[in-house]
Amino acid sequence: MAHVKTKLVRAALAIGLLTGPALAAAAPGEGFDVTRYDLALTPDIPNGTVAGREVITLRATRDGLQRLDFSGNGLTIDKATLDGVPVTARSEDDGLGFALGQPLKRGRAVRLEVQYHGRPARGLSGSATSLYTSYFACDWMICLQDQFGDKAAFSLALHVPAGMETLSVGRKVAKTPAPDGGELHRWTAPRPYSAYLFGFAVGRFARVEERVGSARLTYLSEVADADELKRRFAPTGDMVRFFADKAGAPLPVSEYSQLLVKGREAQEAATYSVLGVEALATNADDPAQDWAIAHELAHQWWGNLVTCATLKDFWLNEGVTTFMTAAWKEHRYGRAAYDAELAVARGRLDKARAAGFDKPLAWDGRYPSLATRRAVQYSKGALFMDHLRTTLGERAFWAGLRRYTRAHAGGAVTSLDFERAMEASSGRDLRPLFAEWVFGADAPGSVPRP
Ligand SMILES: [Zn+2]
After folding, report:
1. pLDDT classification of 442: cutoffs 50, 70, 90
2. What is the rounded average pLDDT of the residues 297-325?
């Protein structure tokens, strides 16, 4: 028995699973910048589990880095190495840390290779014959869920049963047979994205393709046939043209897909969106019900291409997009539909205020609930956009939005970037307005100027 035990201990040491000297956890992403995630994943569809091999290429941003902390998840780490040398993985309440044998110097680039398996606690849904992810990427892979500003390249090789369709970020660059009779579908992202935008889907999907300009629109579903997909997603092409005009930039991806699923899902991913049947209009001409397609598509520009650097400025993703959804309705159905959309936003903010809660848009505290967070970052954000539009006038307002979108395409932004674009387009000092709505009038130093 002793012999067996020693062997087990050696094996555990070799794969770095035994606890080393305690080293305090840092916030996920602190001290390093991820350049790319390359992932090979085998999803088990009926069981809702995954097994993965992941290579994370990263660079130390400070000297003496001794630990790499990622977002916590419920996965089991089977093996972890840094440039081929075993490292210790430690799962804690809110993080997953890798303790390094040798501290890293600032600027040093390394490869962290991790093998894992398990059942993701969040972010993976489906049926007996399909799976799709939604938002919580770092529950099914190792990544940085809330580090919106740390955009990284992404590739995913999905190992699936033969005959399955897959969807992931960017373009499917190869489909090859796997030794077990299954298939490997390799996907590559067209540009670096924030980790919360990584995702995939697998199933036997009906499929429809359309073109708008030089871009391809693809609609996929396990729960609807091609005719229904065509009907439900009919407004997409016009929406692409409208948002491209308002953004001053074409659809940022050459292929944009929409996956139709059961339920009320409405979630953007890097180059596609997942939409639930119940979130969509039954009647394509009903102005009350096409918000979900518009909202998630608008994220291709505001959120995915131009991304808030931290959650503090999340209104730049969601408030802008909520407003742009209202703007689409105005364009498609007339002014009353725009007003109705903003009235919904006003109602939500009023409800939060009645409960004693209201904050500036870039407030950095903890929201008491998801509803209050949304009342500020989505609803108040949209109302602020409308207020700016009225205050600056059509010309300066839309020119400012175009300037902001083009200047920061592919990057990460703060509220100050947005303010500067609006000031440049209008020629006005907007500090008082931004102090009132965005930064908080009495927050000292809240309106920094270089
Ligand atoms: Zn959104």
Report:
1. low
2. 97
Distance from Cα 302 to the centre of ligand 1, integer Å: 9
**How far apart are the CA of 179 and the centre of ligand 1, in A?**
40
pTM of the model: 0.92
- Kindly tell me if the per-residue pLDDT of 345 is higher than 90: yes
How open is the CA angle 165-166-172, to the nearest 5 degrees? 115
* Shared fold status for 14-119+139-197 and 307-439: no
**Best CATH choice for the domain 14-119+139-197 from the list 3.30.1330.40, 3.40.50.460, 3.30.465.10, 2.60.40.1730:** 2.60.40.1730
For ligand 1, the distance from its centroid to the CA atom of residue 334, given in whole angstroms, is 23
- Residue 16's pLDDT band, with cuts at 50, 70 and 90, is very low
Query: Are 220 and 306 a contacting pair, CB within 8 Å?
Result: no
Cα-to-centroid distance, 296 and ligand 1 (Å): 6
CA dist 37 and 324 (Å) reads 31
Segment 34-63 shows an average pLDDT of 97
The span from the CA of 261 to the CA of 279, in Å, is: 10
Which CATH number is associated with domain 307-439? Answer: 1.10.390.10
